[in-house]
Amino acid sequence: MPGYILRRLLGVAVILFLVSFLTFCIFFLLSPDPAVMICGKTCNPARIDQIREQLGVNQPFLAQFWQFLSGIFAGRTYGEGAAAIHCAAPCLGFSFQTNQSVVDMITARLPVSVTVAVGAAVLWLLIGISAGLVSAIKAGTWWDKGAMMFALGGISLPNYFIALVLQYVLVVQLQVLPFPSTPDFGEDPLFWFQSYIMPWTVLAFGYASMYARLTRANVLDTLGENFMRTARAKGLPSLLVLRRHALRPSLTPIVTLFGMDFAGLLGGALITETVFGLNGVGKLAADSIGKNDQPVIMAVTLMAAFFVVVANVVVDLLYAVLDPRVRVKS
Amino acid sequence: MNRTESKARDDGGALLEVRGLTVTFGTPRGDVDVVRDLSFTVDRRQTLGIVGESGSGKSMTSLAVMGLLPKGATASGSIRLDGVEILGKSDAALRKLRGNSMAMVFQDPLSSLNPYYTVGLQITEAYRAHHNVSRKAARAVAIEALDRVRIKDPHLRIDHYPHQFSGGMRQRIMIAIALCCEPDLVIADEPTTALDVTVQAQILELMADLQAETGTGMIFITHDLAVVSQVAQDVVVMNGGVQVEAGSTEQIFSAPQHDYTRALLAAIPRLDDDLEELKMVGDFRTGATR
Question: Do residues B235 and B193 make contact, with C-beta atoms less than 8 angstroms apart?
Fold first, then answer.
């Protein structure tokens, strides 16, 4: 097992290297000259050259990529002399538009995205799995039909639409909730909860719908398995049959899905954060795209990739624990 | 029903008495009888073979006895276990009988075991469903059960998962599960069909030995006449949901009365036959609605 984990971690390093290389390629080839963007109104060719040199974008591609990589581990300094800007390790770049280290910008926003992701995940797991379970056990009844209609709605309605409707009805019309903001939990727990409940609900609705449908399908599959008949033939109480023999085979595949979905959200719920004006990583990405602040866009992309790749490994290891058939033989 | 009660009746009537059993599926196009007016009895220490082709209603008969018919199916008639009518009993009452007074061995031992749990848990849960004992005591019972079905190193194997066993071993485990509560009646539904021939013989021998030890009555369901001739004292031949012939095994094999039984027997290829083609069993359906 330790050998397996080591191999997987090595794989992670390789994948992250490739992802950063590809991301760097895309931004190098496609984006307009950042020096021109920064230069502003009082621009002249000499000034542009100067900025290019400060950013390091006048160097060849591989040299720039190397600077970027070494910056992550050793930090890097932009420019020389008095105008030099130091970006401490781990340096994912420096935003000259905001004069901040990109890592600082992300770490300032990450708690908001994590709060959004965790709250939504709790909601959607609870609602999605229990709705799916009830639907499967009461398949064909109105319970089932109702839950599946609701799930269809959750899958079909875009979340920015639900977000806007919720905000209009609850905040503007009924005024039962304040406009969402990103307060600390410690300052005002009630306001904190009121701020996050709408983003949680909106995100959870879509995911819960997906999870409900998946849970229902998995449970129905499992209920038809021969080992369910064996369990009943043993004379086990029906609740135990369900809890022990149906749930575990049905929910194990959901672990995989959940790992990836949750990791994806840690990289920022772009639409939801933007609609509700929450200052998370997703909103940071959206704002930076609007301003074409390349170092930020690139760092957010990399970070999202990092979460997904790591989650992938965690999920694989967890799967080996949950399903004895894939356990690595030692 | 507890064991002392059932043992007390040992000298009395038949262990299982099925009279006029009819299993009906409700479909949008009307009711369909998959088993119609079936009657048979099983005594202690005796094995009844139920023979028939796929779809003849053999498995539905066994599920009806266990009270495990799929949704949409209903059974009527009479099923008496130890003289007590069990058809129409509540699910809670039937649950006390299932696994305890009557147990079942299924056809496909791999899919009949839950891949997520050790065989130990799957045996002990059957025992603990009917006995109020500690985990430790149940584990001792399970080790003993594995030993009885001749699995080597039972104290180690008990913690293994189904996929770590071969097909024949898995069926031994299914038998261990069925026998751990010492049931009066064991229903074996094609228990050797999924196994290769040498393993088949071993399992049949094991089942015969265990039956001799415990004195349980057995229903052995199969489509394989050769197997039936080895294990059963009495045979019921089914086709299209109805019984076409019943009698002692000798009688059925030496002097079959019904055309279908004759056709079944004639379809078994023999080494001394000089055949161009294998003989077919024609359509002998005797009235059950299709």
Answer: no
E strand or H helix at B213: helix B197-214
Residue with token string 């066993």: B165
Distance in angstroms (rounded) separating the CA atoms of residues B42 and B50: 11
The residue with greater pLDDT, A186 or A151, is A151
Touching B: A residues 234-253, CB under 8 Å: 234-238, 240, 244-245, 248-249, 252
C-beta of residue A222 within 8 angstroms of C-beta of residue B111: no
Supply the pTM of this predicted model: 0.82
Regions in chain B scoring below 50 on pLDDT: 1-9, 287-290
Where exactly does CATH 3.40.50.300 map onto chain B? 1-101+185-290
**B240 near B284, Cβ under 8 Å?**
yes
Q: Which ipTM value was assigned to this complex?
A: 0.85
Same domain, A26 and A144: no
Report CA-CA distances (Å) from B79 to B2, B3, B237. Answer: 18, 19, 19
H or E, element range at A124: helix A102-137
End-to-end Cα distance, chain A: 7
Question: Count of domains in chain A?
Answer: 2
Asked whether the beta carbons of residue A227 and residue B66 sit closer than 8 angstroms, the reply is no
- Fold for domain B1-101+185-290? Rossmann fold (3.40.50)
Q: CA of A3, closest CA in chain B: separation in Å?
A: 23
Using a CB-CB cut-off of 8 Å, the residues of chain A touching B108 are: 226
pLDDT of residue B7: 43
| Cβ separation A229–B106 shorter than 8 A | yes
Selected for mutation to probe chain B from A137, A222, A227 (highest B CB count within 10 Å) is A227
pLDDT digits (tens, 9 = 90+) for A211-261: 999 999 999 999 999 999 999 999 999 899 999 999 999 999 899 899 999
Question: Region A134-155: what's the mean pLDDT?
Answer: 91
Q: What is the pLDDT of residues A45-79, one digit of tens each?
A: 887 887 777 777 778 888 888 888 888 888 888 77
Query: What's the domain range around A319?
Result: 103-326
Q: Residue A145 is inside which H or E element, if any?
A: helix A142-156
